[in-house]
Amino acid sequence: MSDDKKKLGTRAPLGVKKTVEAGKVKQSFSHGRSNTVVVEVKKRRILKPGDAKPEAAPKEEAPAKEEAKKAAPAPKKEAAKKPAPKKEMTAAERREQVKELERQAEQDRMRREAEAREREEKAKSQKAQDEERRAEENRKAEEEAAKKAEEDARKAEEEAKRQADAEKQAAAKPAPRGKAAPASKPAPKKSGKPAGRPAPDRQRGKLTVNRALRGDGGGRARSLAALKRAREKEKRAQQGQSGPREKQVRDVQVPESITVAELAKRMGEKAADLVKSLFNMGMMVTVNQNVDQDTAELLVTEFGHNVQRVSDADVDIDTSEDVDPEDTLKARPPVVTIMGHVDHGKTSLLDAIRGADVAAGEAGGITQHIGAYQVTPKKGDPVTFLDTPGHEAFTEMRARGANITDIAILVVAADDGLKPQTVEAINHIKAAEVPMIVAINKIDTAGANAQKVREELLQHEIIVEAMSGDVQDVEVSAKEKTNIDKLLEAINLQAELLELKANPDRDADGTVIEAKLDKGRGPVATVLIKRGTLKVGDTFVAGPAAGKVRALIDDHGRRVKEAGPAFPVEVLGLGGVPSAGDQFTVVENEARAREVAEYRQSVLDKKRTTAAPMSLESMFDKKGSETITFPLIIKADVQGTAEAVVNAVNKISNEDIEVRVIHSGVGAITESDVTLAASSGAPIIGFNVRPNAKAKEIAKRDQVEFRYYDVIYHLTDWVKQAMAGELGPEIIEHVVGKAEVKAVFKSGKKDKAAGLLVLDGVIKKGLHARLTRDDVIVSKTTIASLRRFKDDVDQVEAGTECGAVLEDTNDIAEGDMLEIFEVEEKERVL
Ligand SMILES: Nc1nc2c(ncn2[C@@H]2O[C@H](COP(=O)(O)OP(=O)(O)OP(=O)(O)O)[C@@H](O)[C@H]2O)c(=O)[nH]1
């Protein structure tokens, strides 16, 4: 060892290596270079032969090194004392010192990092341990809770069993129950599942609001998503077991009309598949649209099912088959309808009969809806009157009225004679095959000529008694109440001849005369009972509306308990608003009423949707047509009026513009009407109705137009005017001349001019012209300029030649024909 030391000690001054090592300063360049060692050594060697140092420098390397090693503060002092000679050494030392410090700092940093890591790891492991411990505690707690729940469920089950056994042993079904508690006990049932098998860990331990409220600390209700997942899983499992399902062939009942959705349901197929199939057949239908029986049959067979055609009779009520035995029939009052031309005095006559003045309150003097009244004259039996309106727009309603009528009274004003609507009424009466009584009214007037009326009636094959015929005629004055009793006598006589009878002791059926949506009472229908007796509490179906009689109100506004044959009565308790003329039938129960109502509604839906384009072809046809549509929304006070208004406006349509009633209904104009109007740009017509406040507000915002009417021809006049405005003025072309293009010249830089020979009429500058080539219109233009022998002219007569520049047209060829015309704009009248 000592030898070694010696060796080392002796070798030190000669150790070039040492010197080199000492100068091996690892300068930390960013790229990692550290090769400055050699430079240091060289520097020393360069300094040694230099002036400043004693020659012993090479030998003195070791002491110098030692010196450097020994005293770190020394260099500073020395440097202060002898700055020049010490300068180089100090620099080297400083670098080394810096390096050393850096090393130390690096070590420190590494150490600190290591310590931090160690701490972190310790903390982590501690945390993991804690969590593990906590989880373990939780699990234990949950297991205990589950056990408790299981115990509860078992107890509850036992309790239920005990109760069931005690109640009735024999009746109890031995159906296998799961481990869950009976359904009647909700709490145990919920915890039944976890009780049956241990709940998964993740479902435990959480205190949810539900759980807290339920107060069960045990099993937790599964989320909807979890249930869904479980069900799907089960389903998949089942499918996996049974393999691909075999297609089930069904017997599908196909009525005369069915929605695609309903058909799909009956077939057990997807509605979308049916729609696709229909599309392939060229039919554009949605799932909610109806298809007819033939189409439905096609679909059913295409999907491999069996068709069972069902007729309407299977669902709907056919009262005609149900005939009452002769001995059950009892006499009933006649149902009388008064018909005639507008203002001939129908309402006044009815007023005279009833002794009440209704006509005074009528808007515009026109009866707006069918009213029904029963009148018992001083002498004679009761008579039921239907007051049918006289305006032609109500024709349809009148036709319905005539069909339930036993006797028709044709009112003809003695001072006016037969008018178009009188003739129309005659035709309806004849079609309905009801006996007629002619009431020649207004005989009090100066111009009254009853005989003339009788003669005019002859033209329509109506021979009155005064003319030796069999049609009773009575001269009356509704105003003066003259001969009203005679008229009633005539009615009674006619009724006797008819021997009108009905069975009052059965379920009622009848006809809806009028229906409306009453603000306070809901849907209300005026029903004329045909046979049977309608009672409060009866279940019925009226058109597409089912209901139960809540109240019956007679024509004097009195509540009645029942209504017999030929009695008009207002019925409350409908599920919807039926239409005038709809059948009203009492049925055995609500289910039957609903079934019939639904069926009828589907038929109505079908009717409505047939107006929509059903096939691709018709859709394209529709697209191609240039007819302008004039949308309208119609709201009226009563159903019959709404229908009449719709019919009246529909009649205004022509090939250029057609009315499209987007929606029509009964009652005030509502918010939804306005929204519909806004979306379709339709004005809303309120016939005897007004909008509610909300509707008004929205209409103002969306700029929806309201039109209010109480007289139908005012309404139709406006519609005509509005439609004419929509079409714009009528453009009429008057051809004034014809010319042939004989040559084509250049005119100016770009334009062409036509050399024309005027064949017919005249050509005028500024007039419209149509250029045709082989009878095909090439362009519509105007004559921009006319020239004859270099002179500008205003017009050129037939037989002469001229040059013409056509506005915006250079497509001119020899042989083209030019038609010159004047345009007249005329206000359109519909
Ligand atoms: N002088 C006279 N005027 C009558 C008579 N009957 C009705 N009028 C008048 O004729 C006009 C029309 O009478 P209405 O009873 O409203 O006639 P309507 O046929 O019901 O008319 P619409 O309801 O518009 O279809 C009224 O001004 C009546 O006052 C009558 O017997 N004599």
Automatic annotation (TrEMBL):
Cellular localization per UniProt: Cytoplasm
Positions with biased composition (Polar residues): 27-37
Span list, region Disordered: 1-20, 25-252
Broad class of the protein's primary localization: cytoplasm
Pfam families found in the cross-reference section: EF-G_D2, GTP_EFTU, IF-2, IF2_assoc, IF2_N
InterPro entries in UniProt: EF-G-like_DII (IPR053905), IF2_assoc_dom_bac (IPR013575), IF2_II (IPR044145), IF2_N (IPR006847), P-loop_NTPase (IPR027417), Small_GTP-bd (IPR005225), T_Tr_GTP-bd_dom (IPR000795), TF_IF2_bacterial-like (IPR000178)
Domain Tr-type G: 331-501
Position of the signal peptide: none
Biased composition (Low complexity): 171-186
Source superkingdom: Bacteria
GO cellular component, as recorded: cytosol
CDD domains reported in the protein's UniProt record: IF2_eIF5B (cd01887), IF2_mtIF2_II (cd03702), mtIF2_IVc (cd03692)
GO MF entries: GTP binding; GTPase activity; translation initiation factor activity
Biased composition range(s): Basic and acidic residues: 48-170
Keyword set, alphabetical order: Cytoplasm, GTP-binding, Initiation factor, Nucleotide-binding, Protein biosynthesis
PANTHER family (UniProt xref): TR-TYPE G DOMAIN-CONTAINING PROTEIN, TRANSLATION INITIATION FACTOR IF-2-RELATED
Family as reported in the entry's similarity comment: Belongs to the TRAFAC class translation factor GTPase superfamily. Classic translation factor GTPase family. IF-2 subfamily.
Main function: One of the essential components for the initiation of protein synthesis. Protects formylmethionyl-tRNA from spontaneous hydrolysis and promotes its binding to the 30S ribosomal subunits. Also involved in the hydrolysis of GTP during the formation of the 70S ribosomal complex.
Name of the featured protein: Translation initiation factor IF-2
Native organism: Sphingomicrobium sediminis
